[in-house]
Design brief:
By secondary structure, the chain is mainly α. The chain is built from 17 helices and five strands. The chain has a three-stranded parallel β-sheet. The protein has a two-stranded parallel sheet with strand order 4-5. Bound molecules: adenosine-5'-triphosphate and magnesium ion. Adenosine-5'-triphosphate binds next to helix 2.
Amino acid sequence: MLKNDFYGYMEENKLGKIILTGDRPTGRLHVGHYVGSLKRRVELQNSGDYDKTYIMIADAQALTDNIENPEKVRQNIIEVALDYLACGLDPQKSTLFIQSHISELTELTFYYMDLVTVARLQRNPTVKSEIQMRNFEASIPVGFFTYPISQAADITAFKATTVPVGEDQLPMIEQTREIVRKFNSVYEEVLVEPEALIPQNQACHRLPGIDGKAKMSKSLGNCIYLADSADDVKKKIMSMYTDPMHIQVSDPGHIEGNTVFTYLDAFSRPEHFERYLPDYANLEELKAHYQRGGLGDVKIKKFLNNIMQEELEPIRQRRKEYEKDIPTIYEILKKGSEAAKEVAAQTLSEVKKAMKINYFEDMELIREQAEKYKNEN
Ligand code: ATP
Ligand code: MG
């Protein structure tokens, strides 16, 4: 379906613009999540352009590579929920829910498995590198190997049109789109093809860890967490990987692969220069000075620290408020999960009808077969 046809189709079917996205409860959320997806979600939620926003805590997916660690997953549900609320996700505007509570998602996953080949899953570059990272090469849990299919179930159950995610998720969205096309062509036009929404700012596509490694990731332990204290954030920034060849202040420095500059690309705005570093008009000037030589790492790190503290302080404060009332947060998740379940159940029922496995509601089938046997006897 062409894009215009797609929106025409949505009009006709009275489907709105719907957001679905989520995170694995494998740790607290970090600034990579924030710039990669979380900040955008809050903006979209508040934009009024979307009819529904669903935010999922993907506990079932987290278990696929944490089989021996159910306690970790259990403990981190609340951590992720607190980070959501602290960032401004609002349960009045967004449905926050827990994946494992929606059994319909597991059912959809099972049916979608028939639409995907093993070879196709093996080609997924993100899953490939995650398998390597987890030393799963010799024996991959089937659940982990097939998580892109379960992600397709999560997205399509809500007929999501828009999935705000970091760049590493693009292959998952592509896989989902393929499943939707296959389902709709084999059965009936039930599912909606989603679009990934990756950050506009290149530096936010895949924020590196403070160690300079390719991706800030809970599993790599190289994160600045949204809930970190001001002191911890400062310590982490001061220890950040920069340019190993930049030894003396007077040495010319490199910008590429320099984590501090990547973070400045992601977080700095012109007004930050006025406030904290008025000797420079903008980031380009700062970069040029660093490349020429004569600009020390401590100065740029202090500047980054000022910017990040400004961004993180209100999040930290809001989190502290929510931390005072944990039972209410579980209540929010429970209500959200109940609401999400209803929507997923509706999609599942359409899917089963299209797949012709809705026997007891299929009056035509019952009538036809009754007729057939009446004639035979
Ligand atoms: P895990 O190591 O358990 O996979 P993670 O840190 O990769 O955890 P996820 O829960 O897998 O986090 O990802 C949640 C969302 O955050 C996804 O949309 C992902 O693209 C985005 N994201 C995660 N890390 C980054 C990052 N470093 N930069 C930009 N976006 C990110
Ligand atoms: Mg991940």
